[in-house]
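User: Could you write out the 3D structure of this protein bound to NDP? I've included everything you need below.
Assistant: Certainly. Input first, then the structure.
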Amino acid sequence: MLKSEYLNNIYTGVVTRDPDQREFHQAVLEFLESLDLIIDQHPEYQQKGIIETFVEPERMICFRVPWVDNQGNVHVNRGYRVQFNSAIGPYKGGLRFHPTVNLSILKFLGFEQILKNSLTGLPMGGAKGGSDFDPKGKSDSEIMRFCQSFMTELNRHIGQFVDVPAGDIGVGAREIGYLFGQYRRVRGSYDAGVLTGKGLSFGGSLVRTEATGYGLCYLTQEMLRHMRNDSFEGKTVVISGSGNVAIFATEKATALGAKVVALSDSNGFIHDPDGIKLDVVKDIKLKRRQRISVYADEVPGSTYTPGFRGIWSIPCDIALPCATQNEIDGETAKIIVAGGAMAVAEGANMPCRPEAIRVFQEAGLLFAPAKAANAGGVATSGLEMSQNSMRFHWTFEEVDSRLKEIMINIFHNIYDASVESNRPGDLVTGANVAGFLKVASVMLAQGLI
Ligand code: NDP
């Protein structure tokens, strides 16, 4: 229950309008709980209907995606693009290909993306899209045909000044390549800035692949330094997932002196008490596209356990959930606390349920929410867009140092906002408030309503 009647009515309206969209309700409620602390200082939001406008997407596009498999059978998936808010820049946000994709998940992701993009300090609005297509077990040509069909419809809704998609779960460099190829073909125009996460040979940015995982560690390192006078050095780290974010979080945490001892996928987790050998993981996941269980077959001393939630029973100092939404509930959070953790930072979007966040905060753990902690991916996408506009490439070191600076700025921005909201150190509140105030002031200035 929110203190403000105005905010309560907004939340009730959101739930009543789309009663089945539970992930979206969860994201909106967390946001409104943060605003509850500052709403009295901003009567103009209520007068101008800013918050009720903010929780409704500007546009939701839904389309069919027919494609033919290698046996000649026709399949029809559903494609989406939720263009949530374009007050501070063109819509920007990833595409997710996963069987669980639906409007609730894309609305929650698009909503969080508005706040995340605002926190980066770059001019990008918020969006998300994707399809309920399952890329697992599909051949390369099936993936290509699906991407081509998806882009045959999506192309009319995007553009470098309109909406710039990128990758997410199930959409990596290979898929972005096929999507870009189809965009170029149907539009007859080489608009490099229409997608980010492109291959380096056709307008991609160095560090984009590593950016979300690296950025997560840069922000976590700054949080440890500023709030505990500590660092990754000598810490034991558990990371869930074994995709793009998890792999490069492992790489950077290890480079910063930590020992990463576990990774997972949706079937189970591996534990290597000597520290994960990342070259083996990269070979299994990025080259051979196999399951993470193969690691235990190839690395002596490591084990594989079926069931992905079990990973959190491994004691650690720092937990970095990097798989998917809602993987850590209240009970799992208690296990992480009992294992002696000092910090949790979200690499995935909304991996911790609200009751889990409460458990961490009440136990005094540092907690960095996704919209700040994993903003490095979209921030580097913003840098890719800048390089495309300039028709110029920065070096790896140059992009990496900009990414690091952005993540450190995000940490201080949200920490300061937590102090100003009278919740010092509550970075969930800080991220929601800091991200929102910027977009809201632009919505007021542009007279969007
Ligand atoms: P990938 O597709 O590269 O990897 C996803 C990983 O999470 C895989 O190991 C996958 O296992 C696991 N996973 C997916 N769904 C589930 C599930 N339902 N239960 C358990 N494990 C699951 O995706 P990314 O690494 O790109 O994305 C991971 C998270 O990070 C997502 O929440 C995404 O939104 C977020 N994110 C990604 C960004 C990026 O730049 N890529 C930017 C910001 C946020 P399996 O192979 O078995 O499916």
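The longest strand covers residues 74-85.
User: Perfect, thank you.
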